[in-house]
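Sequence in, structure out. Go.
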Amino acid sequence: AFPFAYPDGMHNAETLLVHPTSGDVYVITKEAVGTPSVVFKFPQPLVADQTATLIEVVTLAFPTGAQPDVSGGDIDPCGSSVLLRLGSEVLYLLEPSGAFDTAFSAAPRELPIASEANGEAITWDAEGAGYLTVSEGAGARIHRVACP
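Output:
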């Protein structure tokens, strides 16, 4: 177990990302509709059973307006980009301009996403050639989108 505390109080979060090569662990908050989410990172090295205070990386430029909150995400298998979904409505690709953490400050590029009742999960396929999404609930279908 890796218990943690936020440096600024309590937050709700549904998105946990682990970088495939560095092992860095990120938590992205789930704020109210239209309120930008915050990206936090675990300090390294990870120490089991010792409460870590997360490090604030950046406040995302989204969601805004009536956009739903961040409900899921994944880092591609090579560790070079991030997918973040905002419910069932929006999927963003973020790519770093330098060090990996700069991805969270990059201009998001919108990607296609399947129409799902309550979109929650997203993951890259093992080769990074596409991504899979699924809504919450029993019997939900898994959707795959191939990268262009």
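Check: The chain has no helices and 13 strands. The chain has a mean pLDDT of 94.
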